[in-house]
């Protein structure tokens, strides 16, 4: 029987068709009951909800009776009309009686540092155990993440993975095509999925991620919880020079403000990168010098176990 791996890396047997056949009617019934309760609590007649959502009164009646297999798109319209989250209408936890739902809602509105503190408090393992021997290099492009990560992996005898390459390998498409097909938001979802997959399959490795991943709160929080993170940093002029040395003239092409924009990006992300467990400044350092510093840091702090 096939297995399903969840976001914690835990596996369980996949449900067979008979089990799924039982789950679906229960879900339809639950959604209908939730919609009815939400409408009644707000004192909204069914016809008014119909006008607000664009879903016919007859179909709403079928839905509330547990007889309407509503599409996600229509259910989202109903949720918006009720001023509810769609997950409140779908989830197994009753949003009006569940402390778990309330905690989740408070968590979403908390600062990233508070979210991390909550995760550390509730996690069944210590942060060190959760991170195992996984190291993640973060920072802007041109800092040296891929170069140093690859060399350090060989030196330490552990795998090196570049997240973009992992995504390309899994999807069978280059990043440029994935971005064109799914957009920035879709690609960020692929990043999150790839990181969960790496956590589930690797206890020890060095991972290099794209510079913008820190701007995705949930994904970055997951990285901080499951990897020993190191911010590979450099001065803005060195970032730009290294990118151009790789043969990529795009950052400067037709953009006289490119350097100022780079400084602005670095400033805006500095606090996020600063949440890393360690920092390595590669400014004015040779590759060999930076590599030696990185290996010393990893070994002295026991990041790889």
TrEMBL record:
Pfam families on file? HTH_3, SKI
Recorded hits in CDD domains, A to Z, give: HTH_XRE (cd00093), SK (cd00464)
Quote the record's cofactor note: Binds 1 Mg(2+) ion per subunit.
The record's annotation in InterPro entries points to: Cro/C1-type_HTH (IPR001387), Lambda_DNA-bd_dom_sf (IPR010982), P-loop_NTPase (IPR027417), Shikimate/glucono_kinase (IPR031322), Shikimate_kinase/TSH1 (IPR000623)
List ligand-binding residues for ATP: 142-147, 250, 285
Main localization is cytoplasm
User: Which Gene3D superfamilies does the protein's record reference?
Assistant: lambda repressor-like DNA-binding domains, P-loop containing nucleotide triphosphate hydrolases
Tell me the cofactors it needs. Mg(2+)
- Pathway annotation: Metabolic intermediate biosynthesis; chorismate biosynthesis; chorismate from D-erythrose 4-phosphate and phosphoenolpyruvate: step 5/7
EC class (word): transferase
- What EC designation does it have? 2.7.1.71
User: Can you state which reaction this protein catalyses?
Assistant: shikimate + ATP = 3-phosphoshikimate + ADP + H(+)
Task: Please indicate which superkingdom the organism of origin belongs to.
Answer: Bacteria
Question: NCBIfam families recorded for this chain?
Answer: PRK08154.1
Family the UniProt entry places it in: Belongs to the shikimate kinase family.
Q: What function does the entry list?
A: Catalyzes the specific phosphorylation of the 3-hydroxyl group of shikimic acid using ATP as a cosubstrate.
What is the recorded name of this protein?
Shikimate kinase
Q: Which organism is it from?
A: Phaeobacter gallaeciensis
């Amino acid at each position: 029987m096939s297995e399903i791996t969840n976001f914690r890396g835990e596996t369980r047997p996949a449900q067979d068709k008979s089990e799924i056949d039982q789950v679906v009617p229960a879900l339809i019934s639950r959604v209908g009951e939730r919609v009815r309760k939400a409408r009644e609590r707000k004192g909204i007649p069914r016809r008014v909800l119909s006008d607000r959502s664009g879903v016919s009164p007859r179909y709403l009646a079928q839905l509330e009776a547990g007889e309407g297999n509503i599409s996600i798109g229509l259910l989202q319209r109903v949720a918006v009309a009720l001023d509810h989250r769609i997950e409140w209408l779908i989830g197994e936890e009753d949003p009006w009686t569940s402390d778990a739902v309330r905690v989740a809602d408070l968590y979403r509105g908390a600062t990233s540092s508070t979210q991390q503190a909550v995760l550390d408090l509730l996690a069944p393992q210590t942060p060190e155990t959760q991170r195992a021997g996984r190291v993640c290099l973060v920072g802007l492009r041109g800092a040296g993440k891929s170069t140093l990560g690859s060399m350090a992996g060989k030196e330490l005898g552990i795998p090196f993975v570049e997240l973009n390459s992992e995504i390309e390998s899994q999807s069978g498409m280059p990043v440029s095509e994935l971005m064109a097909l799914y957009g920035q938001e879709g690609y960020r979802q692929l990043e999150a999925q790839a990181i969960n997959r790496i956590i589930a399959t690797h206890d020890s490795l060095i991972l290099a991620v794209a510079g913008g991943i820190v701007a995705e709160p949930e994904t970055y929080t997951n990285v901080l919880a499951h990897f020993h993170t190191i911010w590979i940093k450099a001065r803005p002029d060195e970032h730009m020079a290294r990118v151009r040395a790789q043969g990529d003239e795009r950052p400067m092409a037709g953009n006289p403000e490119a350097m100022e924009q780079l400084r602005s990006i670095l400033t805006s992300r500095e606090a996020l990168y600063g949440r890393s467990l360690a920092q390595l400044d590669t400014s004015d350092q040779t590759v060999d010098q930076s590599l030696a510093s990185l290996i010393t840091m990893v070994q002295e702090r026991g990041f790889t176990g």
